[in-house]
């Protein structure tokens, strides 16, 4: 059955490629120029996950934050310099975005095999897929051919990345601005089945909100005081935060969503509520739809052709 499920997801994603209008990205983009690319990325991500399982969630978050700011162009990877302001110190990223060293390590290995050939944006897309798969999640065929941005936008990062405090209407609008539907929002939020969040991002929820399980709130208060401890961590998935499964949705049904932006999917009535219920019961449907949505998100405004560049160092423009 597992093999059949994987086959179904693969065939479904192939059909997504067939109907895509963005023909400049395709799975075998580096087939001749860097045939060992995917093997290298998988090897390095396996090392990273074995060292720290949480890093899979961190890389996924980097990819999400990258794609939501001027498209999936690797701009989030750029360091600030005396003459350049990147996105790393924007509010949603400062002191919380992590995993840059893993992307650096992958880039170094890829450069050794195929110099000046593979973009950092594509490396991030592949690393994200592999991190999820290594934590038990779905795999998918990654469309490739992105080029790297020479610019970044701290202001866009501050305004276009959803906040953990966002309500459903705000989340829906922000996703729609990127060409993503309410269904995409609901399934991509399932990324929070892995990873952790800092106390400062869920303090208001556990102390002031009412649509929360009281025992769950009490448990989280133990590591998140009313003042101080802003960077103390708690798992986004209360049961299996290093396994990619559908327990995130079971948490929402039980009013155990850690962030306001999580529980917002299961307030009131409407399609998010029914979809959350469906995913809480059917893990295969979640995995299938998540793979679809990740491919869709990965196609947000990529730089292709002669636009952008292939960075030699993911942290710096050439």
TrEMBL record:
Task: Give the organism, scientific name.
Answer: Medicago truncatula
Locate the residues binding heme b. 192
The main location class comes to secreted
Provide the cofactor note recorded for this chain's UniProt entry.
Answer: Binds 2 calcium ions per subunit.
Supply the alphabetized keyword list.
Calcium, Disulfide bond, Glycoprotein, Heme, Hydrogen peroxide, Iron, Metal-binding, Oxidoreductase, Peroxidase, Secreted, Signal
Q: Which residues does this entry assign to the site Transition state stabilizer?
A: 61
- Give every Plant heme peroxidase family profile domain span: 24-318
Job description of the protein = Removal of H(2)O(2), oxidation of toxic reductants, biosynthesis and degradation of lignin, suberization, auxin catabolism, response to environmental stresses such as wounding, pathogen attack and oxidative stress. These functions might be dependent on each isozyme/isoform in each plant tissue.
Residues that bind Ca(2+) 1, according to the entry?
66, 69, 71, 73, 75, 87
Q: What is this protein called?
A: Peroxidase
Detail the disulphide connectivity of this chain as listed in its UniProt entry.
34-114, 67-72, 120-314, 199-224
- GO-annotated biological processes: hydrogen peroxide catabolic process; response to oxidative stress
Q: Where in the cell is it found?
A: Secreted
Q: Which family does it belong to?
A: Belongs to the peroxidase family. Ascorbate peroxidase subfamily. Belongs to the peroxidase family. Classical plant (class III) peroxidase subfamily.
Designated gene of the protein? 11411032
- PANTHER family to which the protein is assigned, alphabetical: PEROXIDASE, PEROXIDASE 72-RELATED
């Amino acid at each position: 059955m597992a093999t059949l499920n994987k086959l179904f997801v693969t065939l479904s994603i192939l059909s997504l490629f067939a109907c895509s209008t963005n023909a400049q990205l395709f799975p075998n983009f580096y087939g001749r120029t860097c045939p060992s690319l995917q093997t290298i990325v998988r090897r390095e991500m396996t090392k990273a996950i074995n060292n720290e399982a949480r890093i899979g969630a961190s890389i996924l978050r980097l990819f999400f934050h990258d794609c939501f700011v001027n498209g999936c162009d690797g701009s989030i990877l750029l360091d600030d310099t005396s003459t350049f302001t990147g996105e790393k110190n924007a509010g949603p990223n400062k002191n919380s975005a992590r995993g840059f060293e893993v992307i650096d390590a992958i880039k170094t290995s890829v450069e050794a095999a195929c110099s000046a050939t593979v973009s950092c944006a594509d490396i991030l897309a592949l690393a994200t897929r592999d991190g999820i798969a290594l934590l038990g999640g779905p795999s998918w065929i990654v469309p490739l051919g992105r080029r790297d941005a020479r610019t970044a936008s701290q202001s866009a990062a501050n305004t276009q990345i959803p906040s953990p405090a966002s309500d459903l209407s705000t989340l829906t609008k922000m996703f729609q601005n990127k060409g993503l539907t309410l269904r995409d929002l609901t399934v991509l939020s399932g990324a929070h089945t892995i990873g952790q969040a800092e106390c400062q991002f869920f303090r208001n929820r556990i102390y002031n909100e009412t649509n929360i399980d009281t025992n769950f709130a009490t448990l989280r208060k133990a590591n998140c005081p009313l003042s101080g401890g802003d960077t103390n961590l708690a798992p986004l998935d209360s049961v299996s935060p290093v396994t990619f499964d559908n327990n995130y949705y079971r948490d929402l049904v039980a009013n155990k969503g850690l962030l306001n932006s999580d529980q917002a999917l299961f307030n009131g009535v409407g399609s998010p509520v029914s979809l959350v219920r469906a995913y809480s019961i059917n893990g295969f449907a979640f995995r299938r739809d998540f793979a679809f949505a990740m491919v869709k998100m990965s196609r947000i405004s990529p730089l292709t052709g002669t636009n952008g560049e292939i960075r030699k160092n993911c942290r710096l423009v050439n």
